[in-house]
Amino acid sequence: MAPILYWMRRDLRLSDNPALTWVVQQGRPVIPVFCLDEVVETWGAAPKWRLGLGLDVLRGSLEDAGARLILRRGQALDVLRTLIEETGADTVVWNRLYVADERTRDTAVKEALRSDGLTARSFAGHVLFEPWTVETGSGGYYKVYTPFWKAVRDRDPGAPEPAPKEFAAPEVWPQSEALDDWDLGRAMSRGAAVVAPYARVGSAAAEGRLGHFMAHGVADYDSGRDKLAEDGTSGLSENLTLGEIGIRTCWAAGQRAMADGKPGAETFLKELVWRDFAHHLAYHTPHLTSENWRSEWDAFPWSDDNDLAEAWRRGRTGVEVVDAGMREMYVTGRMHNRARMLVASYLTKHLMTHWKVGADWFADCLIDWDPASNAMGWQWAAGSGPDASPFFRIFNPDTQAEKFDPRGTYRRRWLAEGQAKPKETADAFFEAIPESWGLTPGQGYPAPIVDLKEGRDRALAAYKQRDTGQ
DNA sequence: TCGCCCTTGAT
DNA sequence: TCAAGGGCG
């Protein structure tokens, strides 16, 4: 019996997995393969490093079920063709993705394999509702979130499939490259050791996280998720982006919490749908990840990369809550959602720096980096995106800190300078950063690089000018 | 066509 | 109180 190649990408799990479910139903040998291909090679330091951790855990899960994970490096199509030749496979399956570079790759692969006379099948496993299945009344795609939410909230994405108990093995397993040889953490330098304790890797960890959130977090999610110093969110983004947990599994849990009358459950479901919305937009407007979504913003006088942006990246803007967020990201590979909005507003408005500079840094530092959500979020904050905040909505970091970190707990957690006994977390930043930055806690905390009022006024003036087309 | 509405705000 | 324009039904 000819084996089937299961090409794994952002679906590093065995349950809630339509492609895998289909393969196992065929009763034929299955060969799971992950390819370090032309798309994955472009990922930033932290996502690549985190991918390596995920692959290691996935390999163990597959081995427990009597299968293996075959790792190969190269252009996706070349790798798949080589494996087909080595194994006699006549079918390749995968779960679909929707961001421009992923789709370009996948479309080309599908066409090429089919022209080779092979079977290539893809499945819906990465989002709740695929982008082309959600239409406005006039048959277009959605550009505003709330109508999108109303269009999908009563739809059923289907029940998640259980993990297969065992796999039919091929007579001979193809060779796998060694994960260690890929050296996926090489761009992380000292950071890897610091970030590692914060990562929750693999499907079992993800399911534990979901269970914990359903038991403790969801009821108070509405207000809890806004507090900078608290752990009020599900924390699932890290696992969702690599597919270590399925989105329908999360949806089903949210629906159960709704049925149980948990107050925050609907907000949680809405957040899951925000993730879908980002993929909806990335599919229908592929330039979301690379260009201003509204082209009229091309004329806006944003600075490209600059010294102020460098201070922002290093958590040295002199604005405590902004620096705290940036350092949280450097140490943990994640950042509180509200802090993400704050630092994005600050970079694009007070520092008038292009959102792509920020999006690129996030893509390098976040272990939960998701290409669609990251681009949508940055364009939303900058004002160039769909359903964006109006230009006059400029976050005031001081006001935000007062509201969402009233006792300064979050700021003290991440800022060491000027503190008699800095928190371990704050010191950890200085262990994680490159020595080339030349930063020590002893050099004191910087004065603000831009006066908040001046920055705000300058941005408002520029937005106004853009508006009148001058 | 019209009218309501629009994640997360600031002064 | 401010405040823009367009999405959507």
UniProtKB/TrEMBL annotation:
Domain Photolyase/cryptochrome alpha/beta, chain residue ranges per copy: 2-128
Q: Which InterPro entries match?
A: Crypto/Photolyase_FAD-like_sf (IPR036134), Crypto/Photolyase_N_sf (IPR036155), Cryptochr/Photolyase_FAD-bd (IPR005101), Cryptochrome/DNA_photolyase_1 (IPR002081), DNA_photolyase_N (IPR006050), Rossmann-like_a/b/a_fold (IPR014729)
Give the UniProt keywords, A-Z.
Chromophore, FAD, Flavoprotein
Classification via Pfam families? DNA_photolyase, FAD_binding_7
Give the signal sequence positions. none
Q: Which Gene3D superfamilies match?
A: 1.25.40.80, DNA Cyclobutane Dipyrimidine Photolyase, subunit A, domain 3, HUPs
Q: Which cofactor does it need?
A: (6R)-5,10-methylene-5,6,7,8-tetrahydrofolate; FAD
In terms of superkingdom, the source organism counts as Bacteria
Q: Which family does it belong to?
A: Belongs to the DNA photolyase family.
Q: What is this protein called?
A: Deoxyribodipyrimidine photo-lyase
Q: Which organism is it from?
A: Jannaschia pagri
Its lineage reads: Bacteria, Pseudomonadati, Pseudomonadota, Alphaproteobacteria, Rhodobacterales
